[in-house]
Amino acid sequence: METYFVRHTLGCSVDETTRERMWREKRLFVHFPWDKSSNQTVDSKSLDPNDYTGFRKGGMSALNRLATVGGFVAAHYVGHDNWLVGKINPNSKIEICEGKWRPEELEKHGLKNHNAVVVLKTLKLECCREISPTNYALLQAVQPRGGTIKRWHKAGGLIEAIVTGQKPRISFDLLSPSHQETLCAEFLRRPLASRFDLPQLDSLLCDVGRTMPDLDILGLAPDGAKIFAQVTHDILKKAGHKILALKKYSESQRDYLILFCDHEKKEIRDGVTIVPIKEVFESFTATQSGTHWLQGIFPQI
Question: 201: Cβ–Cβ under 8 A, 6 or more apart, which residues?
């Protein structure tokens, strides 16, 4: 089944009592009060995405798809450090639940004639449990940005494993961009690097991933030569422009220019060493250090 992330933030217009009721009842919800009728005296109860516009239409479409097809869900509620994870069974019914608007939100939007009744479109989570996101570093790193309800491709296998109590299948594709950058830096720190005729990273000159434009790793080899590296999950065909970007950082012929990307073999192009990032993942995670690294970022079920 598909996987979704739902966020209920402090910025929403729903008062705390209503939000807490949704938490207790294990309900995910959306609050899209305005439909095309432009009636702002009461919240809309329409469940038809075509009655809405913009992000509201997208949100209602996602909610309807989740109800029809079913899926796994992680939901974050403001005021709670833990998340709720669970599943929505196929052909579930979207239920209307009523509560109260936050008075300051009514005032903020100039809704003097509104009846102050919040209308929420909700789905009740099944097989629900609480998790602490601090124990699931990967989930924190790959959270989808923006929106109340979003498809969550990156975390699909993990959320399903958490809900069903199964062991997650660990793979490179589940790593966030920041974890991919860390992977390559940790790989370079070890003698493993010599298998690819790469220099061993002796020390970093900047934080990984936060160095400078078009550069993810900046460090020194044991002989003092600089290591300039870019990390991407893209195939080389899509990452070719990164070769040009790396070349401008070269300060001398002693420097090392490295591009970690999705490629079938190691090769050198225009002075840049192309390294298959998935081979790096397999090689590093086969070591004891790599095993411990995976245990630190993947959920322990």
Answer: 185, 188, 189, 193, 217, 219, 220, 221, 227
Encoded amino acid at 17, one letter: T
For the chain, the first-to-last Cα distance in angstroms comes to: 20
Rounded mean pLDDT of the chain?
90
Which structural domains are found in the chain, ordered by start? 2-169 (3.10.590), 175-297 (3.40.1350)
Let me know: does 64 contact 47? Beta carbons within 8 Å: yes
Which residues have C-beta within 8 Å of that of residue 235, sequence separation ≥ 6?
A: 261, 262, 263
Instruction: Supply 289's token pair.
Output: 């250090």
Q: Going edge to edge, which strands form the sheet with 203-204?
A: 203-204, 217-220, 226-235, 256-262, 272-276, 267-269
Phi, psi dihedral angles at 227 (to 5 degrees): -115, 120
**Band of pLDDT at residue 301, cut at 50, 70 and 90:** very low
Distance CA 115, CA 111 (A): 9
> What is the total residue count of the chain?
301
CB burial of residue 204 (10 Å; 0-12, 13-18, 19+): middle
Q: Which of 180, 193, 17 is nearest to 98 (CA)?
A: 17
pLDDT band at 127 (very low <50, low <70, confident <90, very high): very high
Rg from Cα positions in the chain: 24
Average pLDDT over residues 236-249: 87
The burial of 251, by beta-carbon neighbours within 10 Å (0-12 exposed, 13-18 middle, 19 or more buried), is given as exposed
